[in-house]
């Protein structure tokens, strides 16, 4: 499967055709916000797994951002910061959880890798 392909996660499935660029940017920013208790990063920081559909929505948002910005010369600062946080901190929190003996969902490690790949592709401007 392509690194960013939408997939079933829990009982949710989100079609890749349901999100515009503005919404996608908002999803990435919200999911990287540690002050939002149910954001992707906040849940990992609290040693909680993502809620069903959360990774799928995030990957869809990253794919939408990648496609929407592939010809852009710049990224806005809040989005750039969110992308950095989601790629870097998700791995840090996952590894901290492993050291603390958290039993993460089996696919979470691969999901975090897909998030990092998607973020790198956005920064590089490729699809």
Give the N-terminus to C-terminus distance in angstroms.
15 Å
- pLDDT averaged over residues: 87
- Give the low-pLDDT segments: 1-16
**Overall helicity:** 55-70%
Kindly name the structural category: mainly alpha
Strand content: under 5%
Would you report the number of β strands? 0
Tell me the count of domains: 1
Write down the Rg: 14 Å
Task: Identify the overall geometry.
Answer: elongated
Count every helix, treating DSSP H or I runs of 4 or more residues as helices. 5
H/E element order: HHHHH
Largest sheet, in brief, is: none
Write structural notes for this entry.
- With 127 residues, the chain is mainly α.
- The two termini are 15 Å apart.
- Helix 1 (21-31) crosses helix 3.
- It contains five helices and no strands.
- The protein is elongated.
- It has one domain (30-124).
Features:
elongated; 127 residues; mainly alpha
Quickly describe the structure.
The protein has 127 residues and is an all-alpha fold.
Secondary structure layout:
Layout: H1 21-31, H2 40-45, H3 54-69, H4 77-99, H5 108-124
Helix pairs in contact: 1-3, 1-4, 3-5, 4-5
């Amino acid at each position: 499967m392509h690194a960013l392909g939408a997939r079933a996660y829990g009982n949710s499935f989100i079609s890749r055709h349901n999100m515009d660029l503005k919404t996608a940017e908002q999803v990435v920013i919200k999911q990287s916000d540690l002050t939002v208790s149910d954001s992707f990063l906040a849940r990992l920081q609290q040693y909680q797994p993502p809620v069903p559909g959360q990774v799928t929505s995030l990957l869809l948002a990253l794919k939408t951002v990648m496609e929407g910005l592939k010809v852009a010369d710049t990224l806005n600062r809040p989005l750039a910061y969110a992308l950095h946080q989601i790629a870097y901190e998700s791995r840090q929190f996952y590894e901290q959880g492993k050291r603390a003996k958290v039993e993460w969902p089996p696919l979470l490690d691969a999901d975090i890798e897909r998030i990092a790949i998607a973020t790198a592709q956005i920064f590089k401007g490729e699809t």
